[in-house]
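Check this:
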Amino acid sequence: MTGGTRTGIADLYTVGVPVTDQDRALDFHAGKLGLEKRTDSQFANGLRWIEVAPAGAATTIALVPAKQDAPAGVETGIRFRTHDADAGNTELRSRSADAGDVLRWPGAPPMFVRARWRPEREAPGIHGDRPGLSGLSNCDAVERSPPCLNCES
């Protein structure tokens, strides 16, 4: 950093995702995606704070109640990383998640772009009209940063 002062920001802690039903969102993220529930706390004013994350991840996803200025069902831009897109895709489908086909493009690692409920198996709605995640890809697929330490890419 050149010039200016340091802000003291050291890390990315959590990303808030607005949801219409926190219990269903927790069931989806922990039960279907296999994320860990890190926090589930009640506040005095009746609000609930829930955080989930992949095992060992530093950054969490906060499943926050949707409101007028933070509606559910919007593209979050969240991308997860896996060491095997094919195995991850198969596992999510076995958990009744609607995972898109694995995409294979020259110069890019394999990836798939959906993980949401299959409408015929369970009613959608935790994230509004478009429940689920943006994508899951092999290692450093989407932005190639940070690189996966377990891969040779």
Summary: The CA atoms of residues 90 and 114 lie 13 Å apart. The longest helix spans residues 22-32. The chain has one domain: 14-138. Confidence is low (pLDDT under 50) at residues 117-153.
